[in-house]
Amino acid sequence: MSLPEHLRAVITGGASGLGRALAVEVAARGGRVLVADLDEAGSEETLRLVREAGAHGSFTRCDVRDPQQVASLLDAADERMGGVDLIANNAGVAVSGKVGEIGLDDWRWIVDINQWGVIYGCHTFVPRFVAQGRGYVLNVASAAGLLSAPQMAPYNVTKAAVVALSETLHAELAGTGVKVSVLCPTFFKTNIMNAARGPAEHGGLANKLMERSRVQAPDVAREALDAVGAGRLYVVPMTDGRMMWRVKRALPEAYVRLVAWADKRRPVTGA
Ligand SMILES: NC(=O)c1ccc[n+]([C@@H]2O[C@H](COP(=O)([O-])OP(=O)(O)OC[C@H]3O[C@@H](n4cnc5c(N)ncnc54)[C@H](O)[C@@H]3O)[C@@H](O)[C@H]2O)c1
To answer: Looking at the DSSP assignment, which residues form a beta bridge with residue 234?
Structure first.
């Protein structure tokens, strides 16, 4: 089943980074977007790029921590686009550090956005997609949700939850016409470290890894939409992520020993 010709997409966190790249990619494929974010100026810039790509888009202010604001995205999509085909639960933040040292406020902050935000998005859009017998859920997790690198437990925990939610949904929705994909990239350059919480040196290292990546946001967005159209559950766009995930599945105990060994030699952190 390929994507509808005039895909109507709701994208949370569409004001920046991957969300913006997803919006532009939807537009380039002839679709329409509703950008949902807290950042109005960033969203306006996304919409300018969407228009440049020859498509229509609009913005609605939404804090994904609030279930009512997420629920209202459905009405906004009906009003502005005459319905919805794809929800991209993309808004996310990062927290790094060690368990016991990371403040509980930072734990709550990231769980509210990365985990509850995605749960609210699925809770809102899945029943509509089931009722219409067609729809696409793209949950943005991270390779972190598969690989559990040290010094980033809050991020790993929320992203592993997104993977679990997506796997569960994929099984529950089999045969309904609704497709679920979970996106698990490693590092690529976005603004995520600007708002990230954790030791300053972690931000510096993450930014370096992001800049070094050969796969950047437009590539990730392209691969994600291809996978969504093909109904593929796991989308792991980078080679390093795919390799590490393969090693972990084949040799889980050896993998965690290797990760512990590497962590003693350098700090590991980031998106
Ligand atoms: N950049 C990476 O290396 C990387 C790697 C793997 C996964 N990801 C994931 O990609 C997704 C997008 O992040 P990004 O890297 O583009 O970062 P980004 O900071 O550039 O974009 C995130 C967007 O989410 C929005 N946002 C934050 N909190 C919000 C809230 N409460 N309600 C609504 N919007 C909110 C921000 O305003 C921003 O526009 C995240 O889920 C992130 O975890 C990023």
So the answer is: 182
Which ligand 1 atom sits closest to the C-alpha of 159?
43
Question: pLDDT tens across 122-174, in order?
Answer: 999 999 999 999 999 999 999 999 999 999 999 999 999 999 999 999 999 99
User: Is 255 annotated as catalytic?
Assistant: no
Measured in Å, residue 192 CA sits from the centre of ligand 1 at: 6
Question: DSSP for 78-113?
Answer: HHHHSS-SEEEE-----B-B-TTTS-HHHHHHHIII
Q: Distance (Å, rounded) from C-alpha 58 to C-alpha 81?
A: 9
Residue 155: predicted pLDDT: 98
Q: Could you tell me the CATH superfamily of domain 8-240? A: NAD(P)-binding Rossmann-like Domain (3.40.50.720)
Question: 2, exposed or middle or buried, with CB in 10 Å at 0-12, 13-18, 19+?
Answer: exposed
Quote the CA–CA distance of 90 and 121 in Å, as a whole number.
10
Enumerate the domain spans of the chain: 8-240
For atom 16 of ligand 1, the residue with the nearest CA is: 17
Distances (CA, A) of 4 to 26, 79, 85: 11, 19, 8
pTM higher than 0.85 for the full model?
yes
